[in-house]
Amino acid sequence: MLARPPYARRVAAVFDLEGLLIDLRPAWAFAVEQAVAAVTGRRFDASALAEEYSWRPWAHALAVLVPEHDFARRAEALCARLFSTSALKRIAVPEGLGMALDALREARVELGAVSRQPHRLALRQLETTGLDRFFAVLSPTNEGAGWDAAARVRQCLDYLGVATADSLFVTADSDAARRAQAAGFPTLALELEPGARAAKLPPGLAGRVTAILSAGPAGA
Cα dihedral sign for 47, 56, 168, 220? Predict the structure, then answer.
């Protein structure tokens, strides 16, 4: 267990939902596979497409998989429904994440999460994975709006009442890390390690976060 740092101020760690906390690619592949099978009767493995297509409109992947226009339109609507329902159970969570978040809460670090998705869907994903219990605030991206990592981190900190200098944005997305740093937010950019069933967090994550927050602006 981590010793509780003697913070003289409130501190917060803001985590990137899709860029660290969860891996949506297995859920995306499941939704596509089931939708195409239901509409066309054809079965295939969509996991190879997830890296390129999982953050693009459903129609882009379906144009590759379903040449029949009417079938593709029906599959597109079904993909969206499946992704927000039965596919949720396919979401992967990095190994060791729960222990790291527990340690941070024990160390009196306020926790927030930012998302590229609308609130309702992002919250359901947190709830399905059991991660919702760790976070005091979730800052989503409104439907149709562009992803702005810095704006989402700012919203979390405003809600928590924590100064930028007393915060840390934690992500494994190098682009999100770069943009947050450019906006002046202390940032910890991670590299996930391969695991047996899901990616693994680097060892000692909670200790790294608390050490940076304890040091203040000079530690980021």
Answer: positive
